[in-house]
Design goal:
Blueprint lengths: L6 H11 L3 E5 L5 H15 L10 E6 L14 E4 L2 H12 L2 E7 L7 H14 E9 L24 E5 L5 E7 H16 L4
Parallel strand pairs: 1-2, 1-4, 2-3, 4-5
Antiparallel strand pairs: 5-7, 6-7
């Protein structure tokens, strides 16, 4: 689950980018896949029938079984271990114009979340990260990590945020990849490209 305030800014970014390939990390109920489908094939091409769809929307479900309750808007869904499913999705459908990482980072340790973003940056032109620092549900397990705007200050463009930073949306673009992930690694190891 995520803060409902994230829906409009995410939909707006998808509509403006009009990606031809989307990777949805953590499909959950399929909300982001449905929104991606609506603001790609349907909004830009009036392609309502599945046979007409041109945008590849790939889902990585973090659970071992598919659990998307929404309509079948995905080209493919890979359930299970994130590292294995990510590699399979990249091999079969990548690279991606847009990767959605919304409401997922707090389910990972900070180290794993940063590693995921680093790997995704190699196979995605744009990464849209949605975070929420609110306790979203009393039934939900305690988060493994907490995120705020300051974590994303280097390398991620702000898209939208709550005044109290209880939620936000940040966009990482290919132009920022070198500055954020490649350059620090080069400086740290004194390697030259």
């Amino acid at each position: 689950m995520c803060d409902p305030a994230l829906i409009s800014p995410v939909a707006e970014v998808i509509k403006n980018l009009n990606p031809q390939s989307v990777l949805d990390v953590g499909t959950g109920l399929g909300k982001w896949g449905l929104i991606a489908r609506e603001y790609t094939d349907i909004w830009h091409g009036s392609r309502h029938d599945k046979a007409e769809w041109q945008t590849k929307i790939i889902g990585l479900e973090l659970q071992k079984q598919k659990r998307s309750a929404g309509p079948n808007v995905y080209t493919a869904i890979y359930p299970g271990d994130l590292k294995l499913t990510y590699l399979r999705a990249i091999e079969e459908f990548g690279p991606f114009d847009l990767t959605l990482v919304i409401g997922v980072l707090d389910t990972l340790t900070p180290k794993d979340a940063c590693a995921l973003l680093g790997h995704l940056s190699l196979a995605s032109k744009n990464i849209l990260v949605g975070y929420s620092s609110k306790n979203r549900s009393e039934k939900k397990a305690a988060p493994l990590s907490t995120w705020s705007a300051e974590v994303f200050d280097s390398g991620f463009k702000p898209v939208a945020a709550a005044p109290d930073d209880s939620w936000g949306v940040r966009l990482f673009t290919q132009e920022l990849r070198y500055k954020t992930f490649v350059q620090p690694a080069i400086v740290g190891t004194r390697r030259v490209l």
